[in-house]
Amino acid sequence: xxxxxxxxxxxxxxxxxxxxxxxxxxxxxxxxxxxxxxxxxxxxxxxxxxxxxxxxxxxxxxxxxxxxxxxxxxxxxxxxxxxxxxxxxxxxxxxxxxxxxxxxxxxxxxxxxxxxxxxxxxxxxxxxxxxxxxxxxxxxxxxxxxxxxxxxxxxxxxxxxxxxxxxxxxxxxxxxxxxxxxxxxxxxxxxxxxxxxxxxxxxxxxxxxxxxxxxxxxxxxxx
Length: 223
Known about the structure:
Strand order of the largest sheet: 1-2-9-4-7
Helix content: 10-25%
GO molecular function: dioxygenase activity; metal ion binding
Shape: globular
Number of strands: 11
CATH topology: Jelly Rolls
Radius of gyration: 18 Å
Distance between the termini: 19 Å
Structural class: alpha+beta
Family: Belongs to the iron/ascorbate-dependent oxidoreductase family.
CATH superfamily: B-lactam Antibiotic, Isopenicillin N Synthase, Chain
Protein name: 2-oxoglutarate-dependent dioxygenase At3g49630
Keywords: Dioxygenase, Iron, Metal-binding, Oxidoreductase
Order of helices and strands: EHHHEEEEEEHEEEEH
Largest sheet: 5 strands, antiparallel
Number of domains: 1
C-alpha cells in the first residue's frame, strides 16, 4: 500500500523541534493538489471535536465527570494516515483463510481511531472475542471506531484494543483515512477503572509518546 502520514504539526522554531523531540516538526505536505492541506486540516479539527465528544461519553458511561479526560487531551497529539491499496487481481485465496496482506494484524496505539473507508467491501477485518476474523463492512456516512492501547490500559482492560488487519483488494483500489485521537505526547497513562476482583490485568503506567515511538520506529525505517 501507499500512504501519507501526517501528525500534529510544530514549526521549526518550536522548542520541541529544536531539542530534537521525536515525531515533532512540520508535516511534509504534497504540493498537489493544493486543496489537500486546508481540507485535511479542517477534517482534523472536526475529528478532534468528535474525539472529545466520544471521551465525554466514555466518562459519563463510567460515572465520571463529563470533563474527566480534558487534562489528558489538553495538549493532545494526533496522527492521520491517508492510504491507498492498489488492486491485486492476480491474488489467489488458497487456503481459504489466507489473505493478501495490505496491513498485518495489529492494534492501534492511542485512545480512539476513526476510520473513514470507501465502499470496497471485505478489506478491513477485525478479530472478535472468539479469535475469528470478521469483515468490517463500510456503511455510508459512518466511521469505524477502533479502541487503542491507551484506552485499554486506562480502563484496566475493560475496553480491549481492537486487533485488525487489511486484506488486499483484488478488483478495485481501496482508499481509507485513519485518524488517531491521542493523549498528550508526554502524558502518562495508568490503570484507573476498578474492575471485578480477579479480572484486573497487570498494566503498568506508560508514557504515551514512548509507546508511540516504540511502535513507529519498529514498523518504519526512517532515513
